Amino acid sequence: MEQIRQYFHQFTPLSDADWLYFSSRLIPESFPKKSLVLCAGQTENYLSFIAEGLVRFFIPGDEENDVTFSFSFAGDFVSAYDSFLTRQPSTYHVETLTDTVLLRVSYTDLQDIYQNTAAGNIIGRHAGEGLYLTLLRREISLLHETAEQRYVKLLTDQPKLIREIPLKYIASYIGITPQALSRIRKRIAGIS
């Protein structure tokens, strides 16, 4: 739990009282690899911090036609945040790609934290801003970068964890076929 406190400490120091109030509402939960944390049709009830692991967001199709649109790594917040905020069912799945440990706070508890701690709104704002910035960067990347540039960026930003992601999910994420990704990987290997 100290990992999440350090994350918030970057933005605002948490008093011991605020930290105790917040941390007492965190629910540590472990998920094995390939677990659905949230299914399409369910309403997201948690804002979670990834203590360990790797998560993907995808629109379900048949096995070969899932559309992966985001990944979240250890040290990130993860949530079907649109569903969390609107209290409406999600249109996509959230799945672990590795054994994953989440520190979770429920929607109700987060509202209580906002009301009863000095740092609560700062905590919520930074978690929400982080999720928003991730989505904005993804959108800009899709508009301005080539598939190869998106792959190289993912490889540079998360070199260890990228090995944990099946290539078909990476291909879907960068918007190409697995065969096109194979050609990019061969081209990059030839440059190195």
Automatic annotation (TrEMBL):
<dbReference type="Pfam" id="PF00027">
    <property type="entry name" value="cNMP_binding"/>
</dbReference>
<feature type="domain" description="Cyclic nucleotide-binding">
    <location>
        <begin position="10"/>
        <end position="118"/>
    </location>
</feature>
<dbReference type="InterPro" id="IPR014710">
    <property type="entry name" value="RmlC-like_jellyroll"/>
</dbReference>
<dbReference type="InterPro" id="IPR018490">
    <property type="entry name" value="cNMP-bd_dom_sf"/>
</dbReference>
<dbReference type="InterPro" id="IPR000595">
    <property type="entry name" value="cNMP-bd_dom"/>
</dbReference>
<protein>
    <submittedName>
        <fullName>Crp/Fnr family transcriptional regulator</fullName>
    </submittedName>
</protein>
